[in-house]
Amino acid sequence: KLPQTTVARLPVYLRSLVYLAGRGVQIVSSEELAQLAGSNAAQLRKDLSYLGEFGTRGVGYDVDQLINEISKWLGLLRDRSVVIAGMGRLGGALVGYPGFSQKGFRIVAVFDHDPAKVGRGVDGLIVRDMSELGSIVSQNGGVDIGIIATPASAAQAVADQLVRSGIRGILNFAPITIEVPDEVFVRQVDLSVELQILSYHLQKAERV
Amino acid sequence: KLPQTTVARLPVYLRSLVYLAGRGVQIVSSEELAQLAGSNAAQLRKDLSYLGEFGTRGVGYDVDQLINEISKWLGLLRDRSVVIAGMGRLGGALVGYPGFSQKGFRIVAVFDHDPAKVGRGVDGLIVRDMSELGSIVSQNGGVDIGIIATPASAAQAVADQLVRSGIRGILNFAPITIEVPDEVFVRQVDLSVELQILSYHLQKAERV
Lengths: 208, 208
Ligand SMILES: NC(=O)c1ccc[n+]([C@@H]2O[C@H](COP(=O)([O-])OP(=O)(O)OC[C@H]3O[C@@H](n4cnc5c(N)ncnc54)[C@H](O)[C@@H]3O)[C@@H](O)[C@H]2O)c1
Ligand SMILES: NC(=O)c1ccc[n+]([C@@H]2O[C@H](COP(=O)([O-])OP(=O)(O)OC[C@H]3O[C@@H](n4cnc5c(N)ncnc54)[C@H](O)[C@@H]3O)[C@@H](O)[C@H]2O)c1
Hints:
2 copies of one chain form a homodimer. Chain A is α/β, with parallel strands linked by helices.
């Protein structure tokens, strides 16, 4: 079991390692990897120590070995299936993004409840009605992750539908805290919150 | 000076308080506010204690007073001006989102370097060429925040241009760590990282 803060940093280390591998680098020091990941070497060594013994003191880490190890811990050695609920502005941007499938996240179905959107083709998929969620998830033999890109007013109801269909991972963009059973994992991305955190720092700097 | 973890939670408390005010609620207990914000009452009381003495033991917090106080700390008592660099899928979704201006974040200009996009109208603005960033920022008397919605390959160069124009807050969507001087604040949103964190939790649950 890894600390939550370590879990949140592993994907950034992985991103940096994949970048290095792409440039043919085979061994990397903790300093260099930490720099690329926007972290510091001591924290990086501590985080990686939870995965086992990997680096050689004074030499560094084997890039390919570490990529494989982190991918294993993050459950990335197999594809993950994803559905999107809400095909508005944000849903439309997400479905077209090639970066997800490149990392093993396959968008298998997209949903909306607006009759003007249901039935339309987007990036090789047909927008389905939310009422079909349960049957489409079981036709796919289960789905790993549901993305909520609906207005806040619909987000809890949509979360309930995703959970009822057997989905256990939710990425929620709606600016509202959703409640789910203990066995369901939620990651919340609230872009307004990010802007407000920046505003705090700007305001602090202005007062100096 | 507030702890970073407290700063990151204040906007979520604010979101919940605004929701309560909209429903006419005037006093709220720490338990109820924590529940709405997806946090716990002890942590909420600790976070708010950094702002000063607000709640009355046994009674709760004054919703309007707390909204005003948190808004002050977050620098939200005045509008913040925002520019977006990169008017592709994501940039297009962001410029049209009414939620930003409702919270006081006004998108004043949008940029791209693709001649096919420059000059087009989007949501009341004209897409400008990146080369005009400096002059447009000074015409606006300075801009608070720059959003990077370009590919990773361009992100560092774009960050440098934003900093050179005097912008001190950056929200970066490109999956790469950008380097900026100490006086510039960066928030990183990497949606693939969010999916990978979900994948870690799913994998852990599968192994049980
Ligand atoms: N667009 C952005 O840049 C942005 C930024 C920050 C946050 N958000 C949040 O992301 C969410 C989506 O934003 P958007 O800009 O794409 O909104 P949008 O209005 O463009 O799209 C929302 C879509 O959800 C659909 N929908 C509504 N209720 C539904 C339901 N019960 N089941 C299925 N579909 C339903 C609508 O028909 C619509 O197509 C919102 O919660 C918003 O606050 C968006
Ligand atoms: N679309 C998504 O859902 C999504 C999800 C996760 C991450 N991202 C990240 O967000 C960024 C944008 O993604 P997208 O899907 O909108 O890509 P996109 O290709 O649709 O749009 C990128 C835009 O940036 C412009 N651009 C490129 N170089 C530029 C420069 N030097 N100056 C100004 N503009 C420049 C391009 O002309 C294009 O219009 C990428 O870094 C991507 O990895 C996007």
